[in-house]
């Protein structure tokens, strides 16, 4: 067994943290897939590509924000499962 899994005081919180991490990875992948073409369009900087690039980056920020929130919630749940202090 892993050393970190032995120190888990509340396995239900640990499971919840792992459950939140899986969709967070998918949202992060979706955000990257949308943001990369947006960055390329902004870098090309033609008269027509700049607004489309900015629009793609704004669209990528939505799943990116969801992913960051889920990753933060996952890390807090896994940290709390070990009964460690936050500050």
Notes on the protein architecture:
It is a single chain. This protein is mainly alpha-helical and 87 residues long. The chain has one domain. 82% of the residues lie in helices and 0% in strands. Helix 2 (11-44) runs antiparallel to helix 3. The longest helix is centred in the N-terminal third of the chain and has 34 residues, at 11-44. The mean pLDDT is 89.
Helix content: over 70%
- What gap, in angstroms, lies between the N and C termini? 28 Å
Biggest sheet character: none
Number of strands: 0
Gross morphology is rod-shaped
The portion of residues forming beta strands comes to: under 5%
Order of helices and strands: HHH
Count of separate structural domains: 1
Oligomer: single chain
Tally of helical segments: 3
Structural class by sheet pairing and helices = mainly alpha
Low-confidence stretches: none
Q: Overall mean pLDDT score?
A: 89
Rounded Rg: 18 Å
Keyword list:
82% helix; mainly alpha; 87 residues; rod-shaped
What is the structure about, briefly put?
The protein is an all-alpha fold and 87 residues long.
Secondary structure layout:
Layout: H1 3-6, H2 11-44, H3 49-81
Helix pairs in contact: 2-3
């Amino acid at each position: 067994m892993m050393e970190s899994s032995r120190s888990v005081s509340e396995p239900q919180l640990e499971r919840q943290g792992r459950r939140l991490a899986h969709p967070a990875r998918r949202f992060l992948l979706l955000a990257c897939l949308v943001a990369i073409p947006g960055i390329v369009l902004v870098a090309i900087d033609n008269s027509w590509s700049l607004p489309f690039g900015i629009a793609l980056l704004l669209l990528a920020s939505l799943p990116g924000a969801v992913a960051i929130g889920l990753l933060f919630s996952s890390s807090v749940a896994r940290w709390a499962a070990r009964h460690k202090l936050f500050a």
